[in-house]
Amino acid sequence: MKFGGFDMIVKAPIRVDRKTKKLAKRIQPGEIAVINHVDIDEVAANSLVEAKVKLVINAAESISGRYPNKGPGILTENNILIIDRVGEELFNNVSEGETLLIEDGKIFRGDELIGEGDVLTREKVAVQIKLAYDNLGEELDRFIDNTIEYAKKEKGFILGEVEIPKVKTIYQGKQVLIVVRGQDYKEDLATMISYIEEVKPILVGVDGGADALMEFGYKPDVVVGDMDSVSDESLKAAGEIVVHAYTDGRAPGLKRVQDLGLDAVVFPAPGTSEDIAMLIAYEYNAELIVALGTHSNIIDFLEKGRKGMASTFLVRMKIGAKLIDAKGVNLLYRSKLKIKYIWALIATALFPVLILASLSPRMQQFIQLMQLKLRIMLNM
Prior knowledge:
Blueprint: E1 2-3, E2 6-7, E3 9-17, H1 20-26, E4 32-35, H2 42-50, E5 55-58, H3 71-77, E6 81-84, H4 88-93, E7 99-103, E8 106-109, E9 112-116, E10 118-120, H5 122-154, E11 175-180, H6 185-191, H7 193-199, E12 202-206, H8 208-215, E13 222-225, H9 232-237, E14 240-245, H10 252-259, E15 265-268, H11 273-283, E16 288-292, H12 298-303, H13 310-319, E17 323-325, H14 329-358, H15 361-377
Parallel strand pairs: 3-4, 4-5, 5-6, 11-12, 11-16, 12-13, 13-14, 14-15, 16-17
Antiparallel strand pairs: 1-2, 3-7, 6-10, 7-8, 8-9
Helix pairs in contact: 1-2, 2-3, 5-13, 6-14, 11-13
Domain Thiamin pyrophosphokinase catalytic: 201-237
Transmembrane segments: 341-360
Keywords: ATP-binding, Kinase, Membrane, Nucleotide-binding, Transferase, Transmembrane, Transmembrane helix
């Protein structure tokens, strides 16, 4: 049975993970994703769409109402139904690979009803997102207050109080492309291929951004991050690894790198991994820093679970004119292509035709007639 394009009865194997981005890497087309993800974000939703999942069961609230997160809308627009708020008990009571039957929000293991949740269709998502937009003003006030508060505490990050570790990668006088797996990162990276091939910038992948580079056939020169969402293959291919650590020196991601038999530089610092990637490039005198897929607005940061953007604000203020944000460059490039090149090709193709046609006596009479009509219309 279908409702609004959705299957209301689904039976399929499940994959279970608290980290949606990890689950998306191993789930197979037609399977059910069982997650525990408050406010499903855009990147997570796109990864599930690309994996061609059949259904999403979420133990948590897919839309909490704090802000208008884009993930649920992306899923439902792609005919992936969400069974929402099924609870921790069910999440802990299911096993990877077992088959479940879902009917109108009720979840069965064989003949046993093991739980149920709210069925989120695109109509319900639209209603909840509208309510979230109404709450955004209050959330924005808190976000601004937190940004200012943390900026006061973290100003040493850009004033030389945080020691920049020594790295082997030579940034001096070179352009640097920093890739983050953010909104539209694949489309933007595809648009930047000519730039990469011609300029040969240093390629820096921030966590999963390194996998993005690998997908396009490029080995990252540097991988920066806490190592929670980058593949082993990308780490092994990287020229250098910088592990982002807490300010007290703890670096949970370091063990994973060492277990692979790889060396790494540890950088204890506040802020995000993309912030320190930019700061390293700047401090080691990169000629230009091109940032792709980075997080730069309130929705981006709320989707990452951050209460403010102090470090990002400070770093971007410091590196100033050396930074070019390539986020959304695919839209800009497509616009230029349509206007500049397509019309030029059409005009070029028509030019010889018009020249030959103008030599015809009948065409000359037609042109003269059109000129006369134009003069009458314009009272000339």
